[in-house]
Amino acid sequence: MSSFENVTVVTKANVYFDGKVTSRTVIFTDGTKKTLGILMPGEYEFGTDLKEIMEIQSGELNVLLPGSSEWISISGEGEFTVPANSKFKLDVKTVSDYICSYISE
Amino acid sequence: MSSFENVTVVTKANVYFDGKVTSRTVIFTDGTKKTLGILMPGEYEFGTDLKEIMEIQSGELNVLLPGSSEWISISGEGEFTVPANSKFKLDVKTVSDYICSYISE
Fold it and tell me: Can you tell me which residues the record assigns to a coiled coil (chains A, B) (predicted)?
C-alpha cells in the first residue's frame, strides 16, 4: 500500500466545480506540496501557477495539454506534466484518483 | 489552517457509491486512524466496524443514527458519534467535508 510518510495534511478539502473536483493538500518535510484528488466525470479547465506533474492512480480521462490540439487518453494509470502559468483541459469519463505534484522552478 | 502533522497518508483514495463518497486514510504515530472525506449530495447507508466520530467541517446534511427515528440536521459544522458494528444513514444536501475518527474500544 503506497503512502506518504512523515507529512502534514491540511484537514479542510480543496473544493472546485461544485465538488466534482476535490483534493487534500499534503506538505512534505522539505516544504514541497502535493495534492491527492478525486475527479468526478465531467469537463474541466484548470490553470497552473507552478509546473504540475499529474499522476493518475486510477480512472479514465482525456487530457488536452496547453498548446496542443490533440487529446491524450489515460485509462488506469498515467502521468502528464503541465507547465507553470498555463491552462489544460480534462474530459473525465470515470471517477479518477490523482496525485498532483507542484514543482517550483 | 488546521492540519494533521507527522502523519502517514495512503496515496490511493477510498471510493464508495460510484465516487459520491470518497476519503483519504491518515495514520497517526500512535497507530490510530482517521479519514478525510467528501460526501456529494445523495442518500447513503454506512456500516461501522469500530466506533466512529464524524466531524463535519462544512456542508449541509441530515443524519439518522442507529436506533433512532429522528434525523439530526447539521449545517456548517457539527459532530456525531456512531457506535461500533452499527448502521447509520446520511441524507447529504450539499457537498460536505468530513473528518472521521475510528475509535478502538
Answer: none
pLDDT tens per residue, range B69-101: 999 999 999 999 999 999 999 999 999 999 999
Residue of B nearest to A28 (CA): B6
pLDDT digits (tens, 9 = 90+) for B45-75: 999 999 999 999 999 999 999 999 999 999 9
Let me know if residue B82 belongs to a domain. Answer: yes
- The answer to whether residue A29 is domain-embedded is yes
Structural domain boundaries, residue B77: 8-103
Which residue in A5, A7, A39 has the most chain B C-beta atoms within 10 A of its own C-beta, making it the best mutation to test that interface?
A7
Cα–Cα distance for residue pair A10/A6, rounded to 1 Å: 13
Q: Write phi, then psi, for B80 (nearest 5 degrees).
A: -145, 160
ipTM associated with this complex: 0.94
CATH of the domain at A43: 2.60.120.10
